[in-house]
Amino acid sequence: MSTSNTSFDVNKIRSDFPILSRQVNGCPLIYFDNAATSQKPQQVIDAIVHYYQNYNANIHRGVHALSQEATDAYEKARRTLQTHFNAPKAADIIMTSGTTHAINLVASGFTPFLTKDDEILVSALEHHSNIVPWQMLCERTGAQLQVIPMTQDGTLDMSAYSKLLNNKTKLVFVNHVSNTLGTINPIEQIITAAHQVGANVLVDGAQACSHIQVDVQALDVDFYVASAHKMCGPTGVGMLYGKTELLEKLPPYQGGGEMISEVTFEQTTYAELPHKFEAGTPNIAGGIAFGAAVDYLNQIGLDRIAQYENELLQYASSALSKLEGLKIYGTTENKTAVISFNIGDIHPYDIGVLLDKMGIAVRTGQHCTQPIMDFYGIPGTVRASFAFYNTRTEIDLFVAALKKATMMLT
Amino acid sequence: MSSIQDIQNEIVEEFGLFDDWMQRYEYMIELGKSLPLINSEDKNDNLLIKGCQSKLWLKADMKNNKIVFTADSEAIITKGIIAILIRVFSNHSPTSILAANTNFIDEIGLKEHLSPTRANGLASMINQMKYYALAYQSKQNS
């Protein structure tokens, strides 16, 4: 497989991912659905297997050796995340089941602090999972939900954002990277402006963390959430970073074991952070493997990953733009390796089905972002999202397959 | 008039002539293109099969004790699939539609469309056709 970046040995990287050698419908798998979930390297798979084979035990309360080893490994993973995101304390990292869980935890936690006079801002580029929890929060509190509009090229209208901010604004929610269009949002600017009116900001990093190095202290972000499975880690685990004082202020999200320090039938005292938000037995293997995934990404280097993926993006964008009738949605320069497009008036579903017959996995439809589809007035798009284990050769095959599908469909 | 089973056998025979998936899908795309259009006023939410990635409208009318199905979809492959189902089930009595099996789908290589992950699943189309048949049957019996 060819690559222009000689320092980046994509073949060696590909050999870490067992799934990439399989066939689909008689063709070698070409996996371009990385924005939905990434594939997993052997190192992550091994971390899961190693845990179950050697030290499976419940954590945080056992006095026996296995429990101690499992607790150590789980807490080591938390410290890996702390270091990776540059959180001040390991206890600022709450392990969750994923981004959606983390967002709901914060949205639910703000219920006692909002009234009908307050406003919440959410961006027009959001995934449904970052819209619905805030709508529910508004229903519970009477607060008003306002939308930061987007422009034709798929970026946020920052002047409209400035106008929307006022002293009633209590919370701002924005994704770091749009899952549908790949747009990288100017979160530094968004955070600074929000703080000037005293609002807190939650950034959904689900689509960003496998491409962009995030420093929560440099950003001065109040809450940052991520999912392991988009970062070469397993499904069912994610994290919430929150500033200590905010996490201490929010009430617990779920009741159960682990999250209490003392229980009588009259009263319960909640545990310290992070355990206050980690009721019940967590996804231990998942948490440990999340740490392994972050180690894996860091071993390659997020800067190198981003550079290589950007080369793939430029290569694919240029090849695709030569196809007749192909229109790309989300055309800002500042984007991750995601291309959302349609060809003429062909329905994205038809293209997705035919690409699948040729072994190519893309996502078709609305990508859980109906407001973006309504903005462009389209039923959906085909979305090809690249990862650092994809190659130019795969993109060539993809373009050829698209030509074939278009011919069949017109 | 051929029975549902006869029509299914015919379709299996036709698909048997194709060598590869491309020919099968090209045929389905042709079927999709030739599906008679339904009236635009019938493309309303009442006739929409919910949860599909491409919109699919399915209408059932009773004529001479037989159900006549018409359909449309935004996606051409979905139209092709529903065209096959219409060929199988349209112009039959509610009772025979309800009694019919759908084994032919396996045999023509479209089983993948039965998976629940297929947003335009064959399964929901067949269910909807059978629901219509059940509704008309109850109406006849009442």
Map the helices and strands:
The complex is a heterodimer of chains A (410) and B (142).
Chain A: H1 10-14, E1 23-24, E2 27-28, E3 30-31, H2 42-54, H3 65-85, E4 93-96, H4 99-109, E5 119-123, H5 132-141, E6 144-148, H6 158-164, E7 169-175, H7 187-196, E8 200-204, H8 216-219, E9 223-227, E10 238-242, H9 244-249, E11 260-263, E12 268-270, H10 284-300, H11 302-321, E13 326-329, E14 338-343, H12 348-357, E15 360-361, E16 363-365, H13 370-376, E17 381-385, H14 392-409
Parallel strand pairs in A: 3-15, 5-6, 5-7, 7-8, 8-9
Antiparallel strand pairs in A: 1-2, 4-10, 9-10, 11-12, 13-14, 14-17, 16-17
Helix pairs in contact in A: 2-10, 3-10, 4-5, 11-14, 12-14
Chain B: H1 4-16, H2 21-34, E1 56-63, E2 66-73, H3 76-89, H4 94-99, H5 104-107, H6 122-141
Antiparallel strand pairs in B: 1-2
Helix pairs in contact in B: 1-3, 2-3, 3-6
Question: What is the CATH C-level name of chain B?
Answer: Alpha Beta
Total individual domains of chain A: 2
> Which geometry of chain B do the CA atoms define?
globular
Helix proportion range of chain B: 40-55%
Q: List the quaternary state of the chains.
A: heterodimer
Give average pLDDT of chain A, whole number.
94
Radius of gyration of chain A: 22 Å
Query: Quick one: biggest sheet of chain B?
Result: 2 strands, antiparallel
CATH fold label of the largest domain in chain A:
Aspartate Aminotransferase, domain 2
Number of strands of chain A: 17
H and E order of chain B: HHEEHHHH
How many discrete structural domains of chain B? 1
Q: Which spans of chain A have pLDDT < 50 for at least 5 consecutive residues?
A: 1-6
Mean pLDDT, all residues of chain B? 87
